[in-house]
Structures are given as structure tokens and as C-alpha cells.
Amino acid sequence: MLSKKSIRTKFVIQLVPASAVLIIIFSVGLYYFIKASIEDDIKSQLIGQAQYEATKNKNGERFRSIKTLFNVNGVNRGVDINPTRVQVVIETENEITQSSFERIKRKNKEFLILYYPMADTKASYVKIEKDITHTGVLLQKILKSILIINLIAIFLIIFYAIVLSKTLMSPITTLTRKLVKMNEGFLAPIETKNLPLEFEELGCSLNKLIDRIQTFVKYQKELFIGIAHELRTPLAVMKTKNEVTLMRSRNSAKYIETINVNINSINDMTTMIGNVLEIGRQEGAQFEEPKKLELIKFLNGKIRDFKLLANKDRNVKIIGDLQPQEFETIMQKTLLVHILQNFVQNAVKFTHQDGIVIVKVYRIGKSLAIDVIDEGDGIDESKDLFAPFKRYGNKSGAGLGLFLAKGAADAIGATLSLKNRKDRNGVIASVVLTNEEIKSQ
């Protein structure tokens, strides 16, 4: 059944009346064209016959098949010739200068009368009367046939519209059913090879979305497992240390040591809980309304703020290298700041004494790239550095920074990458904002 909310119903409702109107207009035009053609043929025949009669009468000739009587003293005498009656009228009071036609009805019959003037006598003309009753009956039959054909055509159009709408909606129905059946345990990509060309882009977009969901689910599971593990470890240390301390009496130094261990464990858990809260804040920021942002001006301001994060003890400097003069974008700036702040903090943390961190901004076609380049020891590019609780190197941290940056990038449609420098030791952390988010001035 077709629902009022269905696209198929709207398609059928729009297609059927439009097609029906076109058929009716075409049929009406066809009927009047046939009618006019038949009438023109009849009139042409009558004019030809009138010319023939006028010529013969001028020469004083007569025909065996047609008896022509003349008007004498205003009295007309004629003979019917089936289906045409010819009458030559001479010296009448009514002068006829050009041929004309007249329709009359007599005894349930319809006649077409031609008045054709004779050239030699001003008051003389040929009058031909033709019975066109059968022509009218023929036209009525043609009209009925056209109406019947129209009704059949409209029913065929309705059937065709229903079948066509079902065919056009089939890919969408297939995609809908596949998406409805999907859940966390079944996130298979959509086969785009069998989709029509118009739906391939939609299928690819859905596959990208499915891939992002799979990555999100995977990271969320790793996140929960990691949180449980990271919180359990300091709790276990605290419990073991307290149990050992309480096994026998100890001096105050041992108790102070145990308390300090507990405080350090509590600080680690506090840091972990803070990172978990940061994840919640980031997910909330994803619902922030995107706003217009003059990106170059915004980045210049953020680079000045980032310089305050540099470790003055190791004399690390932050330098900005922004190539475009102006770039206007529409995005959630909170998420972009979170990505850049994480990149800069890592760059400052891993850069050696007296090193330099460069924030470079440049165009890639219609997209904009932001690179944060450090002078550290580099990374192992074979590792998944964006997974939660993955720590590399000897620096402290919960291992959630890049994981949060990846989530923020996915939310704004950006692409993140980490790769080693080729000119020297160090890492290039890049975020590429696609042309869907950026509009050049």
C-alpha cells in the first residue's frame, strides 16, 4: 500500500496527473486535427466540383449523370444526386462575389452547402449541397476511440508509475534495510558495485560512516578496558602497600612512605579521571554549533598562547609559519583548539633542549593543512598512536591525548597524521581541513 508519507506516493501523484493532462491535450489536438483534415478534404472536393460545374455551364454543356436545371423567373428546380445535390442558380437577386460554406440540419441530417460564384454572370452561382451526416458519425466514433485509448493509457501510466517508483526506490530500500539490521556486532560495509551510479556516492559515504563507527566502537572498548586497568593498578598498589604496612608495627618513616605512595597513586587516579572527564567534555563540544571563523587570524592568536606553554627550563621556542593571508571557515573551534593544543603540547614535551617547534599552515588544493613540527626522537610509524592508553617514549602521561585529538578530528571532518621528519629527527603532526569545511575569501 502507498502511504501518504511515502516518496513513492508523491512520485505517483505527480507523474500520473501530469501524464494524464499531456495525453488529454494531445488527444484533443489529434481529434480536432482529424476533424479539420476531413472537413478540408470535403470542402476541397466541393470546390473542385463547383469549378467543374461552372465551367461546363459556361460552355453550354450538360452531363448525363447530372441534370442541371436553371432558375427561371425566380423559380428553382433541382434534382438530388446522392450524396450530393448540385444546383445552378442564374440571375438571382442576391449577388455572390466569393465562395462560402454553410451548415444546416434537416430531418436529423447535417448538410454542408457551398455557394460558388460564376465568373461570367454576377448574379449567377453554383450551389452544391452535400450530406455530411456519415462524416459526423465517423468523427463521433473516432472521438470515442480516442477516449477509450486515453482511459487505457491512464491505467497503464498508473501501473508504470507504481512499477517505476518501486524500481527507483529499490536502492534506497536496500540501503535502509541494511542500515536497520546493523548493530554494534554487525557493521559490515555496503556493497557499492551493485548500486546504481546515482547511489554510489551515498553508499561510499555510508561506508565511511560505518568505518568511523567501527573505529569509535573499537576505541571505546579499548578506552573502558584501559580505564579499568589504569585505575586498578594504583588501587592495587595502595592496597598492597597498606596491607604490608599493617602487618606489624613500623616507625613513622615507614608510615610516611606508605602515605606518600598512596598520595601518588591518588594523584595518578585523579589524572586519569580528569582525562575521562575531558573525553566527556569533548563529546559535548561536538554538539557545539559551527560558526564562521577567520582561521589565519585565529591561529595567529593561538600561536601566541602556545608560546606560553613552552618549557622555559629547556628553552623550547614556538615559531609560526602561516602562508595564506586569509581563510574563512565554518567549524566548531573548540574541537580544533583541542587538536592543536594536543599537538603543540606533545611537540614541546618531546623536543630536546633549545629546540624549535614550528606551526606551519599552508594550502593543499582547496584544503588547508596545519603542521606542528618538533625536534624530538621521532616515532614508530607502524604503531597505532591514536589508540587510547598507548604510551611511547619515556615521557609521562595517560596516553589519551592523541585519542581525544582523533575523536575531535572525526567530528569536524578533518584528517590527522603523524610521520617522521626526513630532514632531521623529529615528528610532523598534521591536521588537514577539507574544502567542505573551508571557504576561501
Question: Could you explain how this protein is built, in words?
Answer:
The chain is an alpha+beta fold. The protein contains seven helices and twelve strands. It has three domains: 7-153, no CATH class; 182-285, Orthogonal Bundle (Helix Hairpins), CATH 1.10.287; 291-439, Histidine kinase-like ATPase, C-terminal domain (Heat Shock Protein 90), CATH 3.30.565.10. The protein is 51% helix and 17% strand. The strands form three sheets. A five-stranded mixed β-sheet has the order 6-8-9-11-10, with helices on one face. A hairpin with a 2-residue loop joins strand 8 and strand 9 (367-373). Helix 1 (7-58) packs antiparallel against helix 2 and helix 3 packs antiparallel against helix 4. The longest helix has 52 residues, at 7-58. Residues 59-82 and 436-441 have low confidence and may be disordered.
Label this structure with key terms.
441 residues; alpha+beta; Helix Hairpins; Heat Shock Protein 90; 3 domains; five-stranded mixed sheet; four-stranded antiparallel sheet; 7 helices; elongated; disordered C terminus
Largest sheet: 5 strands, mixed
Strand content: 15-25%
The overall pLDDT average reads 77
CATH topology of the largest domain: Heat Shock Protein 90
**Which strand order spans the largest sheet, edge to edge or round the barrel?**
6-8-9-11-10
What is Rg? 48 Å
Question: Uncertain regions: pLDDT < 50 for 5+ in a row?
Answer: 59-82, 436-441
Number of strands: 12
Q: What string, H for helix and E for strand, traces the elements in order?
A: HEEEEHHHEHEEHEEHEEE
Helix share, percent = 40-55%
Shape type: elongated
Q: Gap between N and C termini, in Å? A: 51 Å
Total of domains: 3
The CATH class of the largest domain: Alpha Beta
Structural class comes to alpha+beta
Summed up, the helix count is 7
What's the name of the CATH homologous superfamily of the largest domain? Answer: Histidine kinase-like ATPase, C-terminal domain
- Name given to the CATH architecture of the largest domain: 2-Layer Sandwich
